[in-house]
Amino acid sequence: MLNKIWFSSVAFIALLSASINVVASDDVNVYSYRQPFLVKPLFDEFTKETGIKVNVVFAKKGMAERLDREGEYSPADILLTTDISRLIELKDKGLLQAATSAELATAIPTQFKASDDTWYALTTRVRNIYSAKRLGKIDFNYEDLADKKWQGKICTRSGKHPYNVALVASMIAEHGEADTLTWLEKVKANLARKPQGSDRAQVQAIHQKLCDVSLGNSYYFGNMLNDDKQKVWADAVYINFPNQSNRGAHVNISGMAMAKHAPNKANALALMNFLVSEPAQKMYAETNMEYPVRPGVKPSKLVATWGEFKADDLSLEVIAKHRKTALILLDKAQFDL
Amino acid sequence: MTPVVVMLFGSLNASSDLFSHLWATVLPEYIRNTLLLGILVAALSFCFGVPAAAIISQTNIVMGKQLRWLLMLPLAMPAYLVAYLYTDLFDYAGPVQRSLRAWFDWQSPNDYYFFDIRTIGGAAVVIALVLFPYVYMLTRTAFEQQDRNLLRASRLLGCTERQSFYKIALPLARPAIAVALALVVMETLADFATVQYFAVNTLTTAIYDTWLGYSDFAAANALASVLMLFILFAVVAEQRARAGQRHQSSRPNSNQALKQLSLGQQIIASIFCWSLVFAGFLLPVILLLSMAFEYADYAQLLTLLDTGENSIEIATYSATIATLIALVLGLFQRLHQSKARTLPVQISGFGYAIPGTVLAMAMLATFGPLDHAINDFAKMLGFSAPGLILSGTVFAIIFAFVVRFSAIANGTISAGIGQIPKSLDFAPASLGVKTLPAIFRVHLPLLKSSILVAWLLVFVEAMKELPAVLLLRPFNFETLSTQIYQLISDERLEQGALGAILIVLFGLLPIIFLNRQKDNK
Amino acid sequence: MKPLINIENLAVELQAKLILSDVSLSLGKGEILGLVGPSGCGKTTLLNTLAGFIEQSSGSIEISSGEQVKKITLDTMLPAEQRNIGMIFQDYALFPHLSVSENICFGLKNIAKAEQSARCEELLSLLELSELSARYPHELSGGQQQRVAIARALAPQPSLLLLDEPFSNIDARLRHELMIEIRQLLKRLGMTAIFVTHNKDEVFTFADKIAVMNQGKVLQVGEPAQVCQQPNSWQVADFLQLGCWLPVTLLNETENLKVTSLIGQTTGDTLITAVGDNTTVENHTDSALNLQLLVKPNDLELSEQAENNVIIEHISVTQQGYHYLLSSIEQNNALAFKQLSFYSQNLYVLGTELAIKLSGQHFLLYPTGPIIKANN
Hints:
A: D-Maltodextrin-Binding Protein, domain 2, B: 0% strand
């Protein structure tokens, strides 16, 4: 028994030291909100080009707290996020540092980066309105979702999901709090079912005629079309870019930032430069059917077939600013209940 | 224990503004849902587990020997996995309703009635299907250990078999049932991923909302504390209710004559037991197998085995440490009788009720500063900083697991210790053997099976546990559960089916072992 | 008078093993029967079969309750709860989750509430439990628990009370007193009872009738005095510890039955053969027959003429003087014996050799007995 205990303790310490050694100094460490399979091909390419190894931890919840608690000893160099509010949250907590390079400066248009260079967008995605093909082509505004004619015909995922919160925040920026709350209440009244599932599940529901209209990010359309099983779902809907006759469709970003206490700053900058390079941008956009932020880089052929669209040029920082209010309004409208 | 305290302290900074907002909008509904879900799951687990335990322990049901362990199998299924499979299966767009529509040529949801799986009721049924084995196992053991003379006495005093069951056997099994239900409720309330699939908003939702949405970690802590108070209250109330009663079992009910079921009863009992096994285990496994068959390939299996190794490693260490701690605490408590010492053990048991992610945050809050101190100290001495050796390594994960699952280990071990006659504490001393050697030579050998059971239960739970690993893991560290989670979160469970099957297989180990043990006795 | 309980040719088979066979007993109203026998003899099984916990494989049980007679055979089984039989278990089997009064009222659910509490009150005071009525079983002493068990069993007014080793958990000093107390109570209530014990002293204190069992059979039933005087088999005598066993051999004299042992001979007029007539024994004069004489301590006396034939192996002090266990000096003989009891007022030293002889007037001779192995 005692022998076993000793053996276990020794093995345990060995395991601990092994897991520390993983983080060597010529690597670059990434905390990612994005799933590894989306970014891994990019990192592999980067390692092939530069010889710098990329270590990744993926988590959706609590990344900011972890970074905060780790403070100056944090091993994190780069943060990858899927939503503007995360970037702003990290920035507000003082967990980011400005990163500049000629490459970054030229590659990313000003509306897609922080004014103080603490974060950069990598891709954009549109919050589309999907509608059943059986209804024919329709020009949507987000505001239309409150229309009584859609009663019992709208499907959406949880209102609290960051993508929906950002959309509500943009509505607040446009219409103010009171009108947005009314809009939310009316949309809620139009829902075919309680908010649930993912963006794809809503398209599936349209395909199954449970509802006619849903909210969803643009790239899911591409992903579904590329999936044998889900293609029938996507084939049942049109992807609509809302508010084309006025302010434009709501756009969110996926982005990157350098951690305040990044231990491998040079490598981190190299990775950032790589991620905004044309080939990487092309690759990144292709893997997940998103729109590259670097001007001149074309989206994938499939994405391009959905046509040109007008994006809302509302500042991303404004959207992030209204996030909390958006949550409060969602609670008030009891959107998810 | 420490993380619980850290959590409680953390909640002191909670802002009252946010609370009043939540209170005015969604919180009452969340609380109602939480209570409803807790009660429903408890009630359903009771309705599934207790009759199953009674049937298996007291009747001559056909294939009783097989059902005995088959009924434990659902424990091997991670709840989030079953939740995903079932919501997918019974959803409007799911295969069941699709085929029904195709079959009957229904066009829209208005054409027919089908239960909505994404409701509190649906969630409660599915969660209960996975968790009822706790109730089944503990109650069955309680029934089997009851003094058969008590039932005989009741028969002679004019009660029929059925009346005796309700008036004697069931009340006597109450402590076991209560403990099992407490475990079930704790696991239910702490589980966010599962209820999320059902679009059911509970207090746990509120915890995540306040923390991630409103970025108010203190308020999240406060809500988590409220959640724990709920459970504490329920447990204490139950204990109070049976104060004064003591249940000692003197004559295990070993060769009790089994009730002979009539054909009708036999059929009903069999249908009941087999549907539990089917719904809780077979159906999900079949679904997973068919997915794995369709999507898996050899290369994927290799990666899975790799990550499986990580899973096994952390599960092994967590199980070993949790068991050792439970053992030390249990024996210490036994050999130094005092009320005050039981308190820390009880409180640390509530770690099970803390949502995994919140616990992970508490871990960071506990070890973060410690790591800083270590690094600062190292720098002061002129060494290079060792890095985050506590919060940045698997240490944190294992520690979190130990905190979270110590309730299971403590329960099993202390039950085992309780069965050792008190006289054995003193006998070695009378033979001139000191306390410590006595523990090694007397208590540990006697506790062998309890130790193994505790170890295996923690091991399986650690294999399944997700949120804490997700947040605390070091770079490039994947476990089976994180891998499956990533795929599920991208709605690609098909590709994770193989991994899910591996988790289930590992979950089967303790069940097979527990069963073998029983047979050996 | 019609017997209250009549058992005929009862047999019980469990897992293809015959546990009870050919058991016949009957008991009048108000009688107390003590069922004794070595452990494993089937007495508890008999009790459980009467109670209805075990099904008989053949035979019948008749219980009269009031005017009604319930006949229980293989075809007309009656579940335990319909037999109107009360039982007191060895460990009392009090319901740990119920208080004293709830335990007592447990079997009273079929009568009106008011009557229930009246009956309960009555039993509480009868058994001096009134002050303990709100307590739980684990808060009571062993004796108190037993009184609760009795009150609980009596509450539904059973026609027959079964007691399974009821005194085994009671302090030896209190046991006798308690037995008398309970016997008086049962007599006062006119209760018919069967109780099981492996302690012969309990039978003599508690029972009106005794039944000795061995290996699933009832060997002898009768009043205690009668059974003591004429045990019908060596097992009965042995179990009741009526005396010691002295191996003897038959002297082949045609006229008179005569046996001889290492400590002398005795002739036919003092001999009572427990089995059959003399001829039976005579026909088996060969050595295969293991003849044993039942010798009571006062059947022995010191002999002055003869040479020493026994040696003192053990000495203990009793109220009847010194008690010696003697063994034959000659041990390589087929008639060698060990542990013959002998009382004397004189004190001898351990290992002293004595000469003793048979002096009693009545000896019981058994054709077989416990095999006493010669000392090697």
